[in-house]
Structures
1.
Amino acid sequence: MGSLMSLMLAFLQASVTCVVVAAVLLAVLALVRRHWPGVASQRLVWLLAMAAAAGAFMLALAPAGAGWRLLPSIEIARPAPVAAGAFPELALDDVLGGNDGDDDGLARESTPAPRWLLALSGGWLLCYGAGLGFGVARLVRARRALRGLLACATPLDARALAGHAGFDGAPDRMPAVLESGAPVSPMLAGLLRPVLLLPRHLRGFDPAQQQLMVAHELAHWQRRDHWWLHASLLLQTVFWFNPALKALAGGLSHAQELGCDRHVLARRPVAARRDYAAALVAQLKVQLTVRPGGAIGLAAPFAGAGSGAAAAVRERLGQLRLPDLGGSTRLAAAGKTALGACCVVVIGAATLLQPAFAWRTPTPPVAGAAAPDGAAHAALHASRGEAVLPVWQAPLARVKINSAYGPRPVQPTSQASPFHHGVDLDARRGTALLAPADGIVAESTDLYQGQAKFGKVIVIDHGGGLRSMYAHLDQRAVRAGAFVTAGQAIGKTGNTGKTTGPHLHFEVERDGQRIDPQRLIAALRAP
Amino acid sequence: MTPSVTELSLLKCLWKQQPLSAREIHGAVEQELGWSSSSTRKTLERMLEKGMVEQHTAHGVQVYTAALDKVETLAAFAHDFGKRVMEMDAPLPVNMFTGSKLVDQQELAELEQLLQDWPAGKV
């Protein structure tokens, strides 16, 4: 449950980061564009900015990123995991309640994440899933319509192409060409095997214009624009919630058109430019007939998009009128490097300057601690006259107490001490032994305190003067000096040493004094 | 009535050569659609109900012919799909000459004016 919550929080945080990074980059690009209009036609710049936004999302989501952050963590206190599955009667609230009683000081120390934040992140995850589903469905619908359009189109073979005015002087290597009766724009469709779809009405245009339009689409193909476009589509779908990223994608698509315009006209006479501009406008005019009644019926939903489209075409016409087609404002390699560095800086800043949400498992207080807050602790508890103990999980997945800590009602063997300094848990030979808390293996031996009566023994040092000992094991899976984490399997229980049957004997020591393990492990307190 | 893309595939197959049995149709579209012959039969049944194809018996075999005219149907469908593609709100996986958004009458008039004002002679 804790990992789901931390995932939800990380996801919310990554989403916000992604939006902020994309917005910052968009603003930077808008600023650059005002002084350096040529940036509009650099597709690499726009794709790089989109990739940076996506990268910032991934970095924020990566758990390793938390270590690099500069801002203080927002910490969320939680009890150490208890084998709740095995003890359905132990509701989480009980554990939390017990924790409050014992570990007031620890709870006070961390800043818990507010409930509303958890609710918000959970809600956001659901919302994201729904939005993604919607986006994918929309993409599927668009693809289906496109497939329908392609299915209705007639493939043009070599002979048909030879008779098409638009392919005069076209290169030998070309994608497949289809012709459609629909008044659509010429387009390059598909990813792996792209096809060039031309409307039949194109044949009605001036032959020079036809050639320019075909050359434009072939330029997309030669420049591998369809790869860039699909990458952009993928990012737009995954980050559907990010309006700035959508704007960057629009910038990318526009850059591709500007780039192809320049590519086509760079090697043609200046007079061709007006023809080209006229072809662009004529094509737009034909497209208007697609919509019955022109713009009248659909004014509302298309008003916003339409004005943007007109602005884009106006900018393309503007570029055509520049003597150098905007070529002299092209970014030099140095400019691209600078923009790349800018993206890296923004990602870096986004990663470093965000608070890390960290689940904080209460750790054992350091006795007589060096840390100042530890000292405050000690003082706090000294005033209460009782030291704080951490919360541990049970060393076995299923807990059944054979013999509790304390005076023994019955002597199991004649040599056994009348006071039981540990807990005996029922365990068949081979039951997995789990570390109850993080620590370092202090001993892993067959001769504990030089004696064989304990059988195979593991001792873990948990810090803060706390040690735990496990006896009569069948197998020891860790060596002295190994670091173990809570819940890690460290061996198997057994029947070694002096016993009357297979079981786990375990003890907890604080500052050399054995204490009742029940005080740390809630599961042992259960009836 | 708009046929699905798969229905169109079956129709195009019949326009090339007809009449054809369900098995022959399946043989022709199997590669393109990548589905089982029961899917082809099911689609044919649906198309029969919609009146897109007709069924006869020839030499004891059920055969199908297209009930729709090729040129008319393709033109109508192309227009319909074209309209959907051009009006699609979703981002499309295509590079379009004019960009993937439409302009309205007024904007078009402005652009035409821009053309009229194109600097004569050299640019």
2.
Amino acid sequence: MTSDQNKDAQNLDDIREVVENIGSARADLIPVLQAITNKFGYISQPAIKELSGLMNLPTKEILSVATFYRMLSTQPRGKHVIQFCESAPCHVVGGREVFLALQEALNLEPGQTSPDNKWTLLTTSCLGVCGVGPVILIDTDMYGNVTPEQVKIILSRYD
Amino acid sequence: MAFYRSTVLVSVDPVCVEKGAYELITSLQDELIKQGLIDEVQILETTRIGDPQLLGPDLMIYPEGTHYTNLTYYDIPRLVEEHFIKGRILKQYEAVMIDSIDEELSAPKTKEIRVVLRNIGVIDPRNIEDYFAYDGYMALGKVLSEMSPDDVIQEILDAKLRGRGGAGFPTGLKWRFAKQAEGDIKYIVCNADEGDPGAFMNRRVLEGDPHSVIEGMIIAAYAVGARQGYIYCRAEYPIAVSTVNLAIKQARSFGLLGKNIMGTDFSFDLEVRVGAGAFVCGEETALLASIEGKRGEPRARPPFPAVKGLWGKPTNINNVETYANVPQIILKGAEWFSSMGTEKSKGTKTFALAGDVKNTGLIEVPFGISLRDIIFDVGGGIKGDKKFKAIQTGGPMGGCLPESLIDLPVDYETLGQAGSIMGSGGMIVMDEDTCMVDIARFFMEFTQDESCGKCVPCRVGTHRLLEILEGICEGRGTEEDLVELQELSEQIRQNSLCGLGQGAPNPVVSTLTHFMDEYKAHIYEKRCPAKVCRSLITFEILDGPCTGCTVCARNCPVTAISGERKETHVIDQDICIKCGICYQVCQFDAIRIT
């Protein structure tokens, strides 16, 4: 816990920098939270506290926004984030089989992070590349026309 | 802008890339440099060209409109010599000669008309000068020099343009309300939060022709008297966000955005706001809350955004496709626009065709076309020549229509009457292997997950609908469930706050109406006719085809399969979890699902 707190404490300078770059108006809150998630993988409690002071907003207000949007996370995420498109066009072309293969290969339920912090498995709404479903997104790499057999091969590309 | 005598569009869709599209581009560049033609011939990457059944890689050469296919990189020197130096078409690789006529550039299917998509794949979206060359910002020039704000609104009213985001409200009226609303500060917002699963029309427009949307927004700002605008784009579309940001920058540098646009006293500027992954933000009041930095929760209307929108000021909010139609209407006139479509729905509509259809992708067709033409003509029919079962239109709030209804003309009213909606334009085609109860369950999973939770009918109602549907799929369905599904759907539809809740029961009601026999099979016979619902099917190994190769036994995650090598294997039904892996890995079609 102590080391985590130190890590977060070190981040506070970065949090201040993010706010300086984007702005501290109310309308800047979502871009700020987005930038923090992109940079650190999630929005920590100390970060929310710091933001509260910088943006002059109650912490509960920041938390309510941070937990509303799917792309913002208040929980730490793994090194690689896998997003599986759970939308209908992917579903009707065999998405479920791919998702089962993915869950089996990782031994994770949606929303979970592996104990070694390597993977986080998430489901996502439509990524807009429905012509090549089923689709999975690993970090920023998009894979289309995925079959259950390919899942292990794709995962093996990441370390 | 640099002028080229010729432009080569190279398809870099997954199929063509696999077949060496990038090798082709490199080789083409090398050869053009070698022949000293690199300043005369432009190479652009584009998405799929023409018929995907062709061999690929595909390339299209303009202005001739010659379509070559099945080339490899070592054919390039000959192509350059014949086509670009000698001016002869290489017949051997020519696919189909397509004449480039206005609005039907390269459209392979006669039933498509391209208005909104006219520039997609034709111009370089990251270069504003390309857009200029295709009449870009001419409409804005006409508006600022010849038309009053009221003239503009009248033209849009006469064209009978309706909102392309799904509700179909007359755009001209919306603009008039915003113009008449009191206040000095007004806003223009573009809804680019295209969250409907299976809909990606707006993504392509923003990525392929961003200036058409920007121009439409500037014209709208002039008409209603706004000085600031926002494009709210979902974060799932990073390329669209960067393309639009670049386009705004370029427009600003040409004096088309910012102070004193085109030297007049009209000023307007634009900013992109990126979403953070919440489906409900496509609802206009939720979207406005999200721009303000709040939770994206809808609020009751009225007051409508035209009266009280962003930061309480009058706000005009339209969809990407609606704005993209505007410059064309101004340039070609309301009469031209209203000559396309049906009596109440004018112009064209883009749709994203997905699912079990041969040609998936983006299409643009005039209103009034039948679903049959969309599926079998434009879409090329069902994949694997299976039987058509249903088409789901309008995204997760839409309904599933059976074969008996696919001769209906597509417009806002007929789709509504048939129990579905136009929505933003997603279309998912389903073949005979789709279980309609599972589909209803699937959509309900989506809506209950995306319900923002503010109002009870939607939050609790969708959850309860999902529970019942899950029960039916798992073989626990009863006769009362059918009644409760109907009643609950009606309650949710009438009492929900926004379009998400009001539309949420559509997938359930439409499947109950058109596919009741499938619900009955699940409930009374505990059978899934399409063999999809895992609890209601069993996997068996057939004696004849099984060669005893042991692949299934080795892949079974719960070791439910036993048997000696070269002898027929057996599945222990008590252990089997019905994951279907044996079915997938069997090379001999020896696994039967019943």
